[in-house]
Amino acid sequence: MKTKLSPRFWAALTVFSLVGQIAWVVENMYFNVFIYKMFNASAENISAMVAASAVAATLTTVFIGALSDKIGKRKLFICGGYILWGVSILSFILIKKDVIEAVFPMTVSAASVGVSLVIILDCVMTFFGSSANDAAFNAWLTDSTDDTNRGAAEGINAMMPLVAILAVFGGFMAFDLDKDESWTYIFAIIGAVVIIVGIIGIFIIKEPKLEPSKEPYFRTVVHGFLPSTVKNNTSLYFYLIAFIIFNISIQIFMPYLIIYYEVSLQMTNYVFLMAPAIILASVVTAFWGKIYDKKGFGFSSAWSLIWLMAGYIILFVFKSTALVFIGSLLMMCGYLSGMAVFGAKIRELTPEGKSGMFQGVRIFSQVLVPGVIGPFIGKTVLANAETIVNNDGTESFIPNGNIFIAALAAAMVLAGMMLSKKRNK
């Protein structure tokens, strides 16, 4: 029988997943825009920032996930982490050219200092965000569900990145992102919301019944990376490797997506294009989690990959608004439904009572390796991209459709891997 989840659980899942994803959307999609517009960042700068953040997220999740298992607590790390996460977002208000020039009057380039400061502070913010969301919240979600309801819960969790994109796109429409003061308002609003949610969590999150781990802390930290653990959980690690390839495909184009719409395609109204695509993809993703519960991983993952690859092809070939909309819709459906089915499968295969220990392994496959390799591939295929001259005489690169072909190649590798496993069953 299907285990019924309480309204309190659904409220906590929805609020913490949505607000956490809003904060990650600002980091993953708009920090790139921030340093591109405010400090004329290059593709190399953006790649370095994504990679540094990925390393910070992975190390944090490994150590904090294990610590939450060691002391048998999730709620403390979730609520406290969200509050500190919000404070760290507020600190970005101070990163402005005039502030940098006042603090570092002898600096040759305020822009280069600005890029460096954003990368450093991004890693600090990622530490608090990953402690709260990647490590504790994801472990709490695994602890609070079982095989009868995990797909439905993961469907809601996986749709939240798109809902968050819609919320951020809609909210950012009120701001001119070429102005410093707009970013001040953005960081102030997002930071305050994250802090408030952390406080709300004290009252709505139910602490799962956990026994503190009796293993030494260091062994808890490295548990998911031990050869014996891999040997005893071969199916789990196969899907983790597949998840790496899936996320590499996403990270090849995602850091440059908004810049591609706005600069390359000259779609100043890209929010109106993306909003209906995001809404439709969110509905599909929520529905697809239930399909996973009924049909299993093979069926649901195959269609996710088909949608993703079809979206890439359309986005590479066509530039008209209507076809870009269709390509974006298919890409987003494939991306989010893929996140849902891979997430559910990995949770399903995670050993009971050790979800905190395995969050580091999960984030390794979702963030670290893809966050280093994906943007590097994207940067490489954009090495000879056209440039434009800004009003201040500096140059900025223009992303092109090659990022979608490179992403398609990675997705095809994943498709081959999944087909090979099916044949060898």
Description:
The chain contains 16 helices and two strands. Helix content is 78%, strand content 1%. The mean pLDDT is 87. The protein has a two-stranded antiparallel sheet with strand order 1-2. A hairpin with a 5-residue loop joins strand 1 (387-389) and strand 2 (395-397). It has one domain: Growth Hormone, Chain: A, CATH 1.20.1250. It is mainly α and 425 residues long. Helix 1 packs antiparallel against helix 5 (110-144) and helix 3 packs antiparallel against helix 5 (110-144). The two termini are 28 Å apart.
How many helices does DSSP assign?
16
Span from first to last CA? 28 Å
Sum up the overall morphology in one term: globular
CATH superfamily: MFS general substrate transporter like domains
**In which order are the strands of the major sheet placed?**
1-2
List keywords for this structure.
425 residues, mainly alpha, Growth Hormone, Chain: A, two-stranded antiparallel sheet, 2 strands, globular
Short recap of the structure:
The protein has 425 residues and is an all-alpha fold. The protein has helices spanning 7-39, 43-71, 75-90, 97-103, 110-144, 150-172, 180-204, 217-222, 227-232, 234-253, 257-264, 270-295, 297-317, 321-349, 355-381, 402-423; strands at 387-389, 395-397. Helix 1 packs antiparallel against helix 7 (180-204), helix 6 runs antiparallel to helix 14 and helix 13 packs antiparallel against helix 14 (321-349).
Chain-wise SSE layout:
Layout: H1 7-39, H2 43-71, H3 75-90, H4 97-103, H5 110-144, H6 150-172, H7 180-204, H8 217-222, H9 227-232, H10 234-253, H11 257-264, H12 270-295, H13 297-317, H14 321-349, H15 355-381, E1 387-389, E2 395-397, H16 402-423
Antiparallel strand pairs: 1-2
Helix pairs in contact: 1-5, 1-6, 1-7, 2-5, 2-15, 3-5, 3-7, 4-5, 5-15, 6-12, 6-14, 10-14, 10-15, 10-16, 12-13, 12-14, 13-14, 13-16, 15-16
